């Protein structure tokens, strides 16, 4: 993906907004509560969600699914509608660029024991509120803390 990153950096230097895609892997625990998976970044080991550059010929949703597999070792169903967006400052060799990220929810159906970036990243399942406290990007933290999973409404007693 180096060519895509270089192209994005060129756009950013011209003042254009650049974008990435991300996945928030989620599951329900034994009590039915939502848990989200965070991964550590390769360089700073901060907790983040799997994300990357758009991929030529692939939708944002598909690219987010691929990033989740490569970075977090999870497979599942990525929901069609984005869960939201956030922006952050990406650190480059000698400057920072502003990146807008479109976030998709990925319902995890399989967790791989071995995956592409397993040696460079750690992953953790957390309650959304706990995950939010570990995330440095304020907009992403808010998105995770207020996460709502679309689906059938619980049945009411009565």
Describe the structure.
This protein is an alpha+beta fold. The chain is built from 4 helices and 8 strands; from the N terminus they run αββββαββββαα. Strands 1, 2, 3, 4, 5, 6, 7 and 8 form an 8-stranded mixed β-sheet that branches. Strand 1 and strand 2 (34-40) form a beta hairpin. Helix 3 (128-134) runs antiparallel to helix 4 (138-145). It is globular, with a radius of gyration of 16 Å. The protein starts with a helix and ends in a 13-residue tail after the last helix. The mean pLDDT is 88.
Estimated share of beta-strand residues: 25-35%
Give the number of DSSP strands.
8
Structural class: alpha+beta
- Shape field: globular
Helix share, percent? 25-40%
Mean pLDDT: 88
Task: Count up the helices.
Answer: 4
Taken in chain order, the helices and strands follow as: HEEEEHEEEEHH
Largest β sheet strand count, sense and barrel closure:
8 strands, mixed
Tell me the Rg in angstroms. 16 Å
Distance, first to last CA: 55 Å
Question: Low-confidence spans: pLDDT under 50, at least 5 residues?
Answer: none
Looking at how many chains there are and whether they match, the oligomeric state comes to single chain
